[in-house]
Structures are given as C-alpha cells and as structure tokens.
Amino acid sequence: MYPFPQAINPAVRTHVDAQTAFLNDVSKSMFKSFQQMFDLNIQLVQTMLEETTLASKQMLSADRQTELLSAATSRAQPASDKLRAYQQHIARLAADAQVELARVTEQHVQNTSRTAQALAEEVARDANEQTERGLRAQQETARQYADPFSRSGDGDARTMQRGDGQGSGHQGGIGQQGGMGQQGGIGQQQRSTAAH
Questions:
Q1: 4, 87 Cβ separation under 8 angstroms
Q2: Are 82 and 44 in contact (CB under 8 A)?
Q3: Any alpha helices (H) in the chain, and if so which ranges?
Q4: How many domains does the chain have?
Q5: In Å, what is the CA distance from 151 to each residue of 22, 33, 163?
Q6: Among 29, 103, 139, 181, which residue's CB has the most CB atoms within a 10 Å radius?
Q7: Residue 25, in any domain of the structure
Q8: Is residue 149 in a domain?
Q9: How far is residue 173's CA from residue 149's CA, in Å, rounded to a whole number?
C-alpha cells in the first residue's frame, strides 16, 4: 500500500541518532555562549548604571564649576576602561564559542560520517536489489508475452503445443483415437459395426 517499508531501517535510525546527538551538542554549546554574552551585557549595564549614579551624585554635590568638571572627567576614564574590558570579554567569548563548536564538531564528525556512509551503502544495496527484482519481473513479463503458451500452470496449452493427442483436455480428446471425448466414443462404435 505504501511505497516505503513500515519498519525503520537500522542504518537510518543510527544515522538519525548520530545527527540528533550532534545537533543537540551544537545547540547546547551555542546556548551556553549566548547565555554568557547576555550575562556580560547585564553586568555591563549594571556597572554603567552604578558609574552614572555615582557621577551624578558627585556632580550634584559639587559647589564650584571646577569640581563639576573634575568629577565629570574623573568618571570618563573608568567608563572608557570598562567599555574596553567589555570588548575584550566579547572577543574572548567569541573565541571560546568557536573553540567549543570546533570541539563538538570534531567529537561528532567521525560518528556522523560513519553512519552516513553506512546509510549510503544500505540505500545503494537496497536500490540494487530493487533494480534486479524489477529487471527479473520485466524479463519474465517479456518472456510470457513472447511465448504465451508456455505458462507452467496451463495443461491445455502444453497439450496443444505438443500435438500428441494424449492429454486429458477437451481439445486433445475430441475425435481422436483413445480420446475420452464423446465423438471419439462414437467413432469407435462405427468402426466396430463396420468390421462385423
């Protein structure tokens, strides 16, 4: 009814399991990297809010303009240092993520390629078997089409082809010597009365 077999091929199951394990590990690695990036962003925002709050307090508590300018310039340098450290953390996280992805890929590539090769061999073998069955069926059909009276299950066709008249079919028995048909019996009665 269906063009595909109902049972799952073990080679397909093994390959799908290997691919699933690979994709799961890659997803875990990517998720871990994104989580570290979000944590770093949250930490940066918290630090920048603290610095801004501290700078605002110093600027509001300043009595003179020189204190105001010195408070603003004193907070500018730590903010730029923190942004530089943030960029370095991002670069380190990106490098770590790349190393982790390479490790996961290296860990799974041998198993995945081995299962893919086994699956390809299984598919090729099944295709060859299906092709051979199809060719045999076509050859049998062509042979039966070319010689329709040579079917193995038809006794009448064999009797007609031999032409010896000794079969038990209706065509071979009618009107022949030793036949079992009704006309053959009448012919014997006529011969026996003519001999008397």
A1: no
A2: yes
A3: 10-60, 65-146, 155-162, 170-173, 182-195
A4: 1
A5: 56, 72, 16
A6: 29
A7: yes
A8: no
A9: 19
Q: Is the dihedral of CA 12, 15, 21, 25 positive or negative?
A: negative
Could you tell me if residue 177 is inside a domain?
no
Q: Residues 183, 175: contact at Cβ < 8 Å?
A: yes
**Residues contacting 172, CB < 8 A, separation 6+:** 156, 159, 160, 164, 165, 166, 179
* Interval 116-174: pLDDT, tens: 888 888 888 888 989 999 999 998 888 888 776 665 554 444 444 544 444 444 444 44
Phi-psi label, residue 165: left if phi above 0, alpha if psi -120 to 50, beta otherwise: left
Q: Please tell me the number of Cα atoms within 13 Å of 134 on its side-chain side.
A: 6
Q: How far apart are CA 153 and CA 103, in angstroms?
A: 66
Question: What token pair was written down for 195?
Answer: 């001999």
What are the tokens at 55? 């700078």
pLDDT tens figures, 89-98: 999 999 999 9
In this structure, is residue 74 part of a structural domain? yes
Question: Over 138-190, what HEC string results?
Answer: HHHHHHHHHCHHHCCCCHHHHHHHHCCCCCCCHHHHCCCCCCCCHHHHHHHHH
Residue numbers of the domain that contains 23? 10-120
